[in-house]
Structure formats: structure tokens, C-alpha cells
Amino acid sequence: MLTEFEGRTAVITGAASGIGLALTDAALERGMKVVAADLNADALGNLERAHRATKNLAICVTDVSSHTEIGKLADFASETFGDVHLLCNNAGVASAGRLWDHGPDFWKWILGVNVLSVVYGAHQFVPRMIAGGQAGAIVNTASMGCLFSAANMGAYGATKHAVLAISDTLRQDLAAINAPISVSLLCPGPVRTPIFDDDLSPDGVEANTDEQTWQSYRKLIGAGMDPADVASCTFDAIAKGEFWIIPDVGMVDLAIDRHNQVLEAADRSV
Ligand SMILES: NC(=O)c1ccc[n+]([C@@H]2O[C@H](COP(=O)([O-])OP(=O)(O)OC[C@H]3O[C@@H](n4cnc5c(N)ncnc54)[C@H](O)[C@@H]3O)[C@@H](O)[C@H]2O)c1
After folding, report:
1. All structural domains of the chain with their residue ranges
2. Ligand 1 center to residue 177 CA distance, Å?
3. 160 alpha carbon to ligand 1 midpoint, in Å?
4. How many A from CA of 175 to the centre of ligand 1?
5. Mean pLDDT calculated for residue range 207-217
6. Distance from C-alpha of 238 to C-alpha of 251, rounded to nearest angstrom
7. pLDDT tens for each residue of 170-187
């Protein structure tokens, strides 16, 4: 479990914007050395310029959907700052649309960015963290959308449900070998970030096939939490080794509704 942050090293993906940017600021404020990774080279450059006075920040342009690039990120982090103590698999993209509107290239893209990034992060970083033998933490950013499902958000929701399953298993796998590495699942509700400003999908892939849902979520998150508060909750949870990070209770009822449905179905079958 990672209880001390000063002088330790963090790798944060999606670090150029929103929650990842706030996690980066929070890690630097706590005296950590940070490798900030993102696909957006311009925004990473801005981040580097904003922190030009510190030697504790290094940037690495990375496509998290690439196993090879995550391996290069792990190499870069260890060459730059030594052992990694905190890995935040945070980069993610949004979508809106009915399930039947999304084709195979869309699915390859969203599963690559939101799910395979987390698996590749585990594959490339965790064996090195175990070998390092030091206290560590992994934070995977899911969403409250990993606990319930919403119409027109099926693809995004599917990826976040997968992040929940992967993270919970990773936590148990590490505990089974007594590794001193905690796993936390960050489940934000609405957070004020630009995630619904642009459809980041590659040419020929449409992530937003339902403008009404897209705009309603854009409005919802516009009134959401400050990313800095989410980052603060996250560091508090890391220091306590907590798995669940629920910064905003606003959507918990939706998760409870689902669990009640399961209990009622189980009751009916006895
Ligand atoms: N904002 C919210 O309301 C909210 C709620 C729940 C969960 N989340 C999750 O939080 C995480 C961060 O989202 P955010 O709201 O800060 O969004 P954001 O758009 O502000 O930041 C996401 C960052 O990920 C980067 N990115 C996208 N594709 C990438 C790739 N292939 N490789 C590397 N980087 C890539 C983007 O360039 C961007 O800088 C995501 O996983 C998102 O699903 C956000």
C-alpha cells in the first residue's frame, strides 16, 4: 500500500486534460515525480511548459490502446525516474449511440482506449512493480457507469463494466501473492471536463451517433464536480488502500436499483 507520496514516481495516462491533469497536479503537489502520458502532444507540451520550473515532471506521448507504446512508456518512466510506485490508467473516451449503430471499427477503438489500455498497463507495469518489491498503487478510472447501464450509452458502459471486472480481479490476484500493491477503482459521477467536447474517434469511426444523448451528457458534466476534488479523493483513497473511490454519491441510487433487481429475482427463485 502506498502511504507516502513524496519522492515516489507516478505514471498517469490521459494526463493532458480533465481528471488526468488534476491527478498530475495533485501528485506534483504531494512531491511525486510524474510521467504524464497522453495522445495529445500539444496539450502535453502545454502541461510541460506550465511546470517548466520543476524537474519532477516528464511527458511521454503515448497511445494507450497500443501494447507496444505502453511498454515504451514503462521503459521511459524507469529510465527517467526509476521504479514506478503509482500507475493511474485514466485515459478514456466517450461515446453515445444505440448499440446497433456502432460497427466493428468503433468497437476496436473504444475497447482499445478504455479497456485494453488497462490490461496493457497491468501487463507492462505490474511485473516490474512486483519485482521492485516496493509499496505501490494502481488506480484504474472507471465511472459510476460501471455500476448501472443507461440507454444510448451501451458502448461506454460496457467498457467501464470491463474496467471494474479487471480491476477487482487484479486486486485479488495481487493480494493472493501478498504484493504490497493496492488497486483502486475510480468511479466518478459527472466531472467538469471536456470529454464530451469532441468526438476523438479516428477517421471513419463515429463515436457519437446520438447527438441528443451526447449533448445531454455534455450538459450534465458541465455542472459536475471539479476535477481537483476528484483527484483529492483519489489520493486520500490510495493512502488508505481503498478499492472503491466514489467521489460523488449522486448516482449511487442507480447502482442500488440494479442490486435490488438482482435480489428480487433471487427471491423469486427460492
Ligand atoms: N468527466 C466525467 O464526467 C467522467 C465521469 C466518469 C468517468 N470519467 C473517466 O475519466 C477518465 C478521464 O476523462 P476526462 O473526463 O478527464 O476526459 P478528458 O477528455 O478531459 O481527458 C481524457 C484524456 O485522455 C486522452 N486520450 C484519449 N485517447 C487516448 C489514447 N488513445 N491514448 C492516450 N490518451 C488518450 C485525451 O487526449 C485526453 O487528454 C476517462 O476514463 C473517463 O471515461 C469521466
Report:
1. 9-268
2. 31
3. 12
4. 28
5. 95
6. 22
7. 999 999 999 999 999 999
Q: 136 CA distance to ligand 1 centroid (A)?
A: 23
Q: What is the pLDDT of residue 270?
A: 84
Give pLDDT, residue 160.
98
From atom 8 of ligand 1, which residue's Cα is the shortest distance away? Answer: 143
Q: Which residue in the block uniquely carries the three cell numbers 464530451?
A: 196
CATH for 9-268 (3.40.50.2300, 3.40.50.970, 3.40.50.2020, 3.40.50.720): 3.40.50.720
Categorize the per-residue pLDDT at 8 as very low, low, confident or very high, splitting at 50, 70 and 90. very high
Pocket test for ligand 1, best of 11, 21, 38, 109 (most atoms within 8 A of CB): 38
In this structure, the residue with its CA closest to atom 17 of ligand 1 is 195
